Amino acid sequence: MTRQYIGWRTASHVIMALLSLACLLPFVLLFTSSVTDADTIVKEGYTFVPSKLSFAAYDYLFANSKTVIHAYGITILTTVIGTTASLLMTSMLAYPLSRKDLPGGMVIAFIVFFTLLFNGGLVPTYMIYTQMFDIQNTFLAQVIPWLLMNGFNVLLMRAFFMNSIPVPVLESASIDGAGEFTIYYKIVLQLSLPILATIGLFQALAYWNDWNNGLVFITEARLFNLQNVLNKIMSDIEFLTSSASMGAGSVAAQLPSETFRMAIAVVGIVPILIAYPFFQKYFVKGLTIGAVKG
Amino acid sequence: MEIKTTRRKRIHLRRFLPLYLMMIPGLLYLLINNYLPMFGLSIAFKNVNYAQGIWGSDWVGISNFEYLFRTTDAYIITRNTLLYNAVFIVLGLTIAIAIAILLNEIRSKMARGFYQSVILLPYLISMILVSYLVYALLSPQSGFMNKTILPMFGLDPISWYLESKYWPYILTIVHIWKGAGYSCIVFLAAIIGIDREYYEAAELDGATKWMQIRKITLPMITPIITMLALLGIGRIFYSDFGLFYQVPMNSGALYETTNVIDTYVFRGLLQIGDIGMSAAAGFYQSLVGFVLVLVSNYIVRRFDKDNALF
């Protein structure tokens, strides 16, 4: 009996350890490849234990770091602005919908819900944003299309408001003369930190990782976020030096292209790896809420 | 009487006015981002002309669709989209359930938390970064496969980005690598929720672990498996654009096995400039997708009302 259990447990550990390795090793390979000597790459390829190390790719990257730093700036700016605006809009739509006494509330909730079932897709959305709103090659194109708010989060937040904000609290505040905006700000938001944190985290991740808006709406390098730069470098390895509009490209150093690709990807991954342990707990919790509800 | 109700209505309105005002930004956004594009689907029946704009272009009936379905592309993208999704649903669910069961066997909270965090890691990074990781493995000149793995077995290097026959496997592996950690969390939550007493009783009766999994764990989580499978089927006409566009690096030689409806629509609109076909394919996707969501939800409802979306 116990032997069987120990067997299962050991097997579980072994398999899970192997799967964990499978998840981690590509990252390790990326890192070791980025510090491999350029000539060694030609002989050995990308490898876990390069016979000769070199930081040439990083030197090159630092010498041409303007574009990357600028792109990080765009990424951080869109993430902060986008997530804040998103939380405000989502909660301001979700709170009235959570009020059972709101006339027409059910109809509006359905309007929100219907967006989960049916959508126009890429072509009409592109046409609307470019032709009616002329959004291409503006900063707003990184923030607004697709990402800013979605019906699913509105309904998730509405459910949270309904379940965890006691109606008597709202009523007594109203009797004390508080206006709806005061109630929303002073009571609803304060009592809803868990859901705000969860949805905020997912929104922030969505903005941080987004490349689609840049790919569809942006052609000017000055508006590229980090993912767009990475995307561009994949097909155009000279991009950092060729984007002269950024004032880069003064350094004529030899481009170690194969290792450079890996180095720039490392630069893209490291912030997420550093932040992950801090938000990991909320992330797992949030996934469970979202998945069970959805 | 008449005056009384109108006055009450006015008081009513004044009381709720701030709430309606609060909803304006969100509703406006849904109008622009979601509802206008729904009406914009009509563009599939037009001859798109940028000068006349989306609403002003001339109607051409179903000729865009006639062109689309006359090409072999229509068949290929439909086939690819459906087959990939079918494989993703079956394999994805199976592997996620297996991982959840294994994780549940691990009693040490620390070890379990560690494994869970690690297998979730791929879910966190963007498809662009995934395409770099895949490139490190598959790069024709310096990739780990061509330089280390294949020579180990005495095999010749392969031009991965030019040979379409390998990509169904590659994309499936990448999809599962990126998504398994996410989907196993749902199952793990469900398994943890199962009452321990069932297992204790089974142990007393001498049931093996394997029997416990088959007779207790799996039946208990069947509702969730069904629900997730049906949700997947509801979305079987949509695919992860990044997976099919970024990971194969938009390589033309691979379209046979990597082109799906989403990538076809994107290339038609932004690279080839064939907006009519692109709009027709997008319309086809939206419409069939909508019908499938309704049908799969109808089926979920028949199984279990609580799990239905509506």
What does this protein structure show overall?
The complex is a heterodimer of chains A (294) and B (310). Chain A is mainly α and 294 residues long. Chain A has a single domain, classed as MetI-like (MetI-like fold), CATH 1.10.3720. Chain A contains 15 helices and no strands. The longest helix of chain A has 37 residues. Chain B has a domain of 183 residues: MetI-like (MetI-like fold, Orthogonal Bundle), CATH 1.10.3720.10. Classes of the chains: A mainly alpha (294), B mainly alpha (310). At the A-B interface, helix 1, helix 2, helix 4, helix 5 and helix 6 of A face helix 1, helix 4, helix 5, helix 6 and helix 7 of B. Chain A: Its main location: membrane. Chain A: This is Carbohydrate ABC transporter permease.
Stretches of chain B where pLDDT falls below 50 for ≥5 residues?
A: none
State which percent range the strand residues of chain A make up.
Answer: under 5%
Alpha-beta content class of chain B: mainly alpha
CATH homologous superfamily classification of the domain at 75-257 in chain B: MetI-like
Order of helix and strand elements from N to C terminus of chain B: HEHEHHHHHHHHHHHH
Could you give the count of β-strands of chain B?
A: 2
| N- and C-termini, Cα separation of chain B | 40 Å
**CATH fold node name of the domain at 75-257 in chain B:** MetI-like fold
